[in-house]
Amino acid sequence: MAGAAEAALLLTWGANSYGQLGLGHKNDVLVPEELEDFPVCLLSIRSITGGGGHSAITTGDGQVLSCGCNSFGQLGLPWVSRSCQIPQQIEAFAEKVVHVAAGLRHALAATEGGLVFQWGTGMASQAKRACRGKMISSFLAAKEPCVVTGLEDVKVKRVTAGSYHSVSLTDGVLYVWGSNKHGQLASQEVFIAEPQKIEAHVFSGEKVEEVWSGWTHLVAKTETAKVFTWGRADYGQLGRSIQEGQVQVLPDAPDTCAQHTWSIPISLPCLTGASQIACGSEHNLAVTGSQCYSWGWNEHGMCGNGTEKNVHSPKPIRALHSAKPVLIGCGAGHSMTLCETRRQTLQK
Questions:
Q1: Considering the domain 2-346, what is its CATH architecture?
Q2: Model-level pTM greater than 0.85?
Q3: pLDDT per residue as tens, the chain (348 positions)
């Protein structure tokens, strides 16, 4: 008699010039492609994420695997000089990792005990300029996982990262550090050297339950399942239209903070209740019901719709219509989803 057995697929697509898709080659992929012979059981995977040219995965037993570019130490693999095309385990953690995030040239991890680690030197040059000759924190210039100072009195549950900034989430509260050029950290400072709290009034007094980050935009879901987006919108990455004057930046001033209007989160009704969201550099994925949606920058096909045209509002990915998304992740120009399928087996 025929029965069904659960199986899992790990699929990646988009930009792949450093092997960040983990497929063993460096060719761009326009539609989802399955990773074969993965080094751990796919059903044990708990989170997947991508950065500028690197990806990271966590498992149920607290392992972290990474692949792609390592020119700035962003893989946390000191024995890898430039890049690797197959995921490898980071061995520097003394306790289980529960969440991981990847920025442009850095990465973050939150452990079971609530600590946050950061590695990769992508934020170091901006930190040195902003600190004007003062010593910068070790975690801003580490090529292996290093504890982030300033969070000793809180227990972090989740982390996320942008191009040159980092975000952590405790019990309903966001802490941010790094570059604030576009006001994405809800502060008037140009660079925040150590974790700084974002007050609840920014989200209409609600607690934040989840947070995600693009290069210079952020997305947060509150306790009532409202989804807020704020930051840049050049490629449709906010999933909504922007009124003239709502988003402005001081021209030709790379080291100055954007005007305060950039840092005002606004809710996006069409995503209310989304179970998962992931941000790439300028594109996003979301799971609503049993469908996976994408929107934003699409130059490398990372929206998964078979084209390279930008998508300005959330649209379902038709290539995934027969599979139920379990986990999603985005890199700068690539996307990933772990899908649940039903495969027929013979039953004795």
A1: 7 Propeller (2.130)
A2: no
A3: 344 456 788 999 888 999 999 998 999 999 889 988 788 888 889 888 888 899 999 999 999 999 999 999 999 999 898 999 999 999 999 999 999 999 899 999 999 999 999 999 988 888 888 878 788 888 998 999 999 999 999 999 999 999 999 999 999 999 999 998 877 888 888 899 999 998 888 898 999 999 988 899 999 999 999 988 887 878 988 888 766 555 444 343 344 444 445 567 888 888 889 999 988 889 999 998 888 999 999 999 999 999 999 998 888 999 888 888 889 888 778 898 998 876 543 333
Q: How far apart are CA 275 and CA 325, in angstroms?
A: 11
Tokens of residue 147, six digits: 């504890």
Structure tokens at 298: 């699409």
Cβ distance 277 to 286 under 8 Å? yes
Can you read off the two tokens belonging to residue 157?
A: 């549950």
φ, ψ at 127 (rounded to 5°): -65, -40
How far apart, in whole angstroms, are the C-alpha atoms of residue 297 and residue 307?
Answer: 11
Render 240-272 in DSSP notation, one character per residue: S---TTTS---TT-TTSPPPGGGG--EE-GGGT
Residues 6+ apart with CB under 8 A from 13: 21, 29, 30, 31, 32, 33, 301, 302, 304, 334, 335, 336
342 CB-near residues (< 8 Å, 6+ apart): 4, 5, 6, 7
| Residues 297/237, Cβ–Cβ less than 8 Å | yes
